[in-house]
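User: Just a sanity check before I run the rest of the batch. Below are the structure tokens for the first item. I only need the designed sequence back.
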């Protein structure tokens, strides 16, 4: 499903229990760090940071890939360049995630179609932090 209606976003937020943040950064000025910090403080989600180039952020382990996570994340929140989205989608499908969330500024309609065809809910060009705050 590629619908981004308020009802779809609310359903995803309500049903999500775990979130993998792909493209996590140790830099507090980066959006991925800000979103992680907010979600850690404001939600009960189990959060996983994913980035093959770092091993921890503020004492929290960072995993090199979605496949390395200790559980299947419900939602994969993506902070990567557009050209990397097909690979992130393939990884999300391979691990069995339910939702692919492309952060604000990220949109790829082919990735959205392919994700929906594989059974994922795909949300594009929205900020997880903003949407959670909006509906919480």
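Assistant: Here's the designed sequence for the first item:
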């Amino acid at each position: 499903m590629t619908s981004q209606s308020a009802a779809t976003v609310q359903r995803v937020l309500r049903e999500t229990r775990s979130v993998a943040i792909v493209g996590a950064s140790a830099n507090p000025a980066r959006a991925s760090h800000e979103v992680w910090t907010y979600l850690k403080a404001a939600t009960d989600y189990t959060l996983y940071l994913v980035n093959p180039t770092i091993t921890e952020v503020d004492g929290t382990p960072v995993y090199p890939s979605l496949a390395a996570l200790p559980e299947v994340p419900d939602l994969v929140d993506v902070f990567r360049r557009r050209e990397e989205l097909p690979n992130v989608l393939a990884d999300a499908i391979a691990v069995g995630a339910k939702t692919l969330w492309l952060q604000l500024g990220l949109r790829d309609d082919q990735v959205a179609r392919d994700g929906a065809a594989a059974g994922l809910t795909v949300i594009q060009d929205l900020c997880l932090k903003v949407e959670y705050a909006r509906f919480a």
